[in-house]
Amino acid sequence: MSMKYLITGGAGFIGSNYVNRLLARGEDVIVYDNLSRAGAPRNLDWLRQTHGTDSFQLAHADIRDAATLTATAKDADIIVHLAGQVAVTISVTHPREDFDINALGTFNVVEAARLSERDPIVIYASTNKVYGGMEDVPLAEKESRWQYASLKHGCSEEQPLDFHSPYGCSKGAGDQYVRDYARIYGLRTVVLRQSCIYGPRQFGVEDQGWLAWFMIAAITGRPITIYGDGKQVRDVLHVDDLLDAYDASVTRIDDVKGKVYNVGGGAENVISIYAEFFPMLEELFGRKIPVQRDDWRPGDQRVFYADIRSAKKDLNWHPKIGVDTGIKKLFEWIIANKNMF
Prior knowledge:
Layout: E1 4-8, H1 13-24, E2 28-33, H2 40-51, E3 57-60, H3 66-73, E4 78-81, H4 88-93, H5 95-115, E5 121-127, E6 139-141, E7 146-148, H6 165-185, E8 188-194, E9 196-198, H7 210-220, E10 225-227, E11 233-238, H8 239-251, H9 253-256, E12 259-263, E13 270-272, H10 277-285, E14 292-294, E15 303-304, H11 309-315, H12 323-336
């Protein structure tokens, strides 16, 4: 029997990939999206072309609209909350809007779940930004990257929360509300603190979606700026691997409800943004890619990669798509769809 999924932000990068997966296996899906992102209409067109014009229900609405969200969620068995304001830079310039979307919007989601009579599962896409700058964690500088001096497996869920930037605060508030609604109201929730997610249907921009952005900028001739020394590292996770974690959270909900997991590429899928990534990119393009250099930006972290051992253990999940393979897959998708950029 198919389950009814409500995907907030279902026309976005991650959302449209998950909706595609759900429809392919015959699930009943509601896409809840305000279509404010530039790629959202294109993603909806792709879903309709792939699965049929009536393959899913579209709720063209905003998560800040509590009444509409509550009414839409009342029939959902599973709510996957992906809608949000995604850029740190925008949160700094528009902090109230960031709060309304991320903190209040997530509150609206858990309230809609609490008021539902179906006891829906709630999966929340949180962020590694809840750990802040981790300035107290010693680093080591290597030839092509920075790394943690002693955290062999990366940042674990035991790292103290330290919200930096309005974005960190708003996403962190949502993170804790989703967690606490499991404790206080018995909601079946799972918080997934996601690292750098990449893959097809990602219309990256400079301050969000950097792997895709560098490729898009290179193919369209837009200027690329590298901040700092270029050896700052992130763990990267292909969107297909992320969706496996969503599915595993639903399948194992009785064991993992109320818990929080880091979901990223982990220590095995770390790459420095310039010193290691750009040689790969230039090999794919077959040419030198010009860049501009600038100073470190305030708040730029030299290192973040997640310790994902808890997710591996409890969800029986691990990334299957390595950095080299995943980057090549993304490059091939961007080349095939370069007319969209």
